[in-house]
Amino acid sequence: xxxxxGPSLYHMTDKNIFDALQHKKVTLNALNDHxxxxxxxxxxxxxxxxxxxxxxxxxxxxxxxxFIAGLIENSNRKEPSxxxxxxxxxxxxxxxxxxxxxxxxxxxxxxxxxxxQSGDSTTVTVTYTDVDFSKTEIRQRTTKHAVxxxxxxxxxxxxxxxxxxRAAEIVDQFTNELKKSVKEEVPERIISLEAIVQAEARSYxxxxxxxxxxxxxxxxxxxxxVKFSESDDGEDxxxxxxxxxxxxxxxxxxxxxxxVLQSAEFNQLHxxxxxxxxxxxxxxxTLPGGDKVEFSAxxxxxxxxxxxxxxxxxxxxxxxxxxxxxxGRSPSAIExxxxxxxxxxxxxxxxxxxxxxxxQNDxxxxx
Length: 367
Known about the structure:
By secondary structure, the chain is of the alpha+beta class. It contains 10 helices and 13 strands. Helix content is about 35%, strand content about 25%.
């Protein structure tokens, strides 16, 4: 595989540095610390624009570049995850072999792939350079890490990966290597409501999801994204003029606040053919002293409800009965893995309920 991204930025011009230092993440304190390390003292009355212009005029080496790049990188960005289940019986050694083949095929791509195994879990860690030419030059190339987890669960492979194109490519290659070796069809399970177009059914998925996380009790819904269902357009053509104006102009909306699902605004939109495409909610661990956790789930392609992804946003530590920390923290690696497993299980369970109620069998049973 040939290298696609070209050379990195080997030398920063004064314009590159000046543009980077204009970023809102670069504070006066950070600039003063940088200059102090270089033995330069400035007056407290000097403004950021003057300091930025002065710093840009100085000579910079590799370590200075790393410092400036570190100021504007978003290392704490929480990337959502997605999950695929392959119904196939494999040995752990075979999984490792397929991963090794993927590493061979991706040589020369500018990536570093490392494979590790522990019990029935195989982890592929990818280090790569992400390119975004819409940013200033110093921010166009960012080193990123992606962790792909493959769990061998008694006749099924559960593959969890970041919801981005790079990780998707690697998982697709792994799946292709597997299918070439296995002499039978390998069923693949993903969550997609593309074949179920009813607005009510798509919202029903999220309504069930937020209530089905094992060991957690729903507290509140903080944000809901809704979109108008084009498939319902003809059915609503006979409604009154006021409602017709609403449906004619509003195609999607974002509702923020407390108790969003109980709000009059949501009920009006939902009753007019809108369906949920993204939801952020808070649940509490039912164990004594359990923390409060904020989750998020969405369809990356809201028009057809495909590309399902989800994440654990924040954890609010338990203080005492019905009282939690006001400021949330990022989950630890262990907490994230446990919570994502619960979220995945709830997602597939909610999906099954949607299919049973609104799928081809058109079951009338409610739950």
